[in-house]
Task: structure prediction
Amino acid sequence: MSTVENVTIDLAVQLGTATMPVHQLLRMGRGAVIALDQLESEDVVLLAHNTPIAKAQVMVQGENIKVTITRMLPLPPERRRSTRPADPAGGDAETSAATDALAAAADQANAAESRTDDAVAPDDQTV
Result:
């Protein structure tokens, strides 16, 4: 277990995206507001090593910000263990192991989600 304790994973929360010319970005000052393409009520994207791994909700509780995962996302084929090179970004073995663990967890979560989606009660089916 000591190996797992020392793994570093870069996590980021993508609140939305915006497109603007560089000159407009350079003119922005402190406190400027950038309009994003996503509503406040919509789920945000959770990224691990710049790979989308989950959808999540952001909540503010007092001075703390809380991120709650609502749905795991499937990893792109090039990031899956079976098709991906052992060291795609030149990272170390610990980072590769952490990414593999995230891939396995996402695959398991998606498999479980698809099994619950398929289990529809007979009276809920439409004809």
